[in-house]
Amino acid sequence: MTSFANRTFTSAEIIGFLVLAALIFVVLPLGLDTFRLNLFGKYLTYAFVALGLVLCWGAGGILSLGQGVFFGLGGYCMAMFLKLEASSPENTAIQSTPGIPDFMDWNQVTALPWWWEPFHSFAFTIFAVIAVPTALAFIIGIAMFRRRVGGVYFAIITQAIAAILTILIIGQQGYTGGVNGITDLRTLHGWDIRTDDAKVILYFVNAVLLFGCLVAAQFVRRSKLGRLLIAIRDQEDRVRFSGYDVANFKVFVFCLGSAFAAIGGAMFTLQVGFMSPTLVGIVPSIEMVIFCAVGGRYSIFGAVYGALLVNWAKTTFSESFPELWLFAMGALFIGVVLAFPQGLAGLYAEHVEPHLKRLLRRSGDVRPAPGATPAPDAAAE
Q1: Do 292 and 163 contact (CB within 8 A), yes or no?
Q2: pLDDT at residue 380, rounded to an integer
Q3: pTM of the full predicted structure?
């Protein structure tokens, strides 16, 4: 375990990992009441998406403006299981058709659709949370990257897919809950997820999963695959002429980013208790890119801090200045992009990391990074 950590993280990154762990596992739970802790748990679900964007956009140069699609699909898969559990014949006895979700009964649907049936199984639901968004990402990736579609064109196409899925969900109200989404989720295998104790437990489950994804992302960045992704980002034609199948690498990292987003979506549903198309479309997808940009698209830790900071600011502004928070969010994004193009992680790398490395060097405990993810300028040097 120690050798794996030493191969995967530098000394400075291990310190950053421990600081983030202390913040999430100790400082926030001790310093916040259950309501606020649940809010930060929701913010951390967005960190899964930002982490996937660090791999896709920061390492691979693939800007997706449709990550909300995968976040939403993961969330909807979990919501379907929870809704079926809440729609037992006893709980829905007053409906004209007991045993089906309430929104189906309101829309004169008289039988559970066949594609809802497998979601009676929790094991299938866990499988579907990962498999459904990843399969869609695989189809999109094969269709786009095999034809060498990239850059702004890929970003626009992913944005269009987010819009299409939103319209589809809203239009099929009898099967998806429409614009309201799937609501009134109560229990997970009989365990009431609305209680304060459940919210605290789900916060820690979410945090453990996030750190698992952080380690996985760091492992990819430090591997040969990570170095190839950086080469593809900076000199795609050279990598292709060297004999590598560039499309396969892009498809893999895009699918991995979608899987991270799907886990975040499923945890969002468990912690917040609903899933709706407002979390799938163009606006939330762009907000997810803002989380990554503010934190720093080349840093996995920056992605987590960016998601926490932007969502905390969003909540604070919307509580104090409900008419102005959208303008404040826009100003924050523009200001960070113009003044700090590498986000908070860039400020850390410029002003804090050199001092930290000097301290570690004095103590004789500094190791060179075996394959850091450099920004394009650094790579060119």
Answers
A1: no
A2: 40
A3: 0.90
